[in-house]
Amino acid sequence: MADINISYLNGPDVERLALTDDEILAAVEQALHAQGSGQTVIEPRVHLIPETSAKGHFNVLRGVVKPLGVAGVKVVGDFVENYRRGLPSEMAVLNLFDPETGMPKAFIDATGITEMRTGAVTALGAKHLARKDSRILGHIGARGTAYWNVRLLDRLFDFDEIRVHSRRPESRNGFAERLSRDLGKPVVATEDWETCVRGADIVVEASRLHEPAPLLKTEWIAKGALVVPYGTMSAVELSLTDIMDKTVVDDWGQCRKGLPFGALRAHVDSGRLSEENLHAELGQIVAGLRSGRESDGETILFWHRGLSLSDIALGHALLEKAARLGVGQTLRFA
């Protein structure tokens, strides 16, 4: 049997490769287009809960992106109190495989990938679903994915005003300072949810709750806004979907009844959101099969649970760039 080798990219390798904003957006958009065109395989994520969901759990995401010739499995831990130990709340590994033979291709530190791909899906959702003249962003949450939400959204919209909020003052203030420095514009840390959200053109809710709590009030949402909630534990009111002209998800298979967690879990389980009244999956819109925003007056909700396809696409982009630049290691597998 011929030797089998795999590529290994650790965290410093991923940082050194430094995918640009445009490289990140292009890779994830390619995966969304493939999904919308029926050129992918997605299996709903599964969870491993070591003790309680309030403390933390593992997500296992699986998929195939046929145009890239890659299958992948990502395991990501989501542990709310990790900041007390000086650790990220989310840490992940990505395994890539040849979907024709099953042979392993790569092992990648996917902590940064998880943050980048989440931000890219948020931004690409806004590209198709937010008003083109959106000037104010209100962002709840300051975890790792939050940075890329704001950075990539601002890349597309160049906001006049960015507001951020999170539960801990040191977290929200540090988050605002980092964004102000990196984006080269003022970012305001608000002391409460309402000040952050009310009147914003785009609202992103990426909170870290131990249990569901309706902290984001429907009455704060401006007509014509785009709302993007994706916290593991819901922070929205049941009435939120009542004011929406369209509701879009990343993958209905991960949103349907019977699955745990998610910002709109109660809306699905109660029948307020179903496959029948869902407008589209984002991939269908990216592929041109369904409409995105059709008028400035539409109020739209985009709920994304997290796609294995975007992890796989970014892993593939990192491998290609690593090969060009000579970054990473080759490990003997068999």
UniProtKB/TrEMBL annotation:
Domain of life: Bacteria
SUPFAM superfamilies on file: NAD(P)-binding Rossmann-fold domains (SSF51735)
Protein name per the record: Ornithine cyclodeaminase family protein
Organism: Azospirillum endophyticum
Lineage, uppermost ranks: Bacteria, Pseudomonadati, Pseudomonadota, Alphaproteobacteria, Rhodospirillales
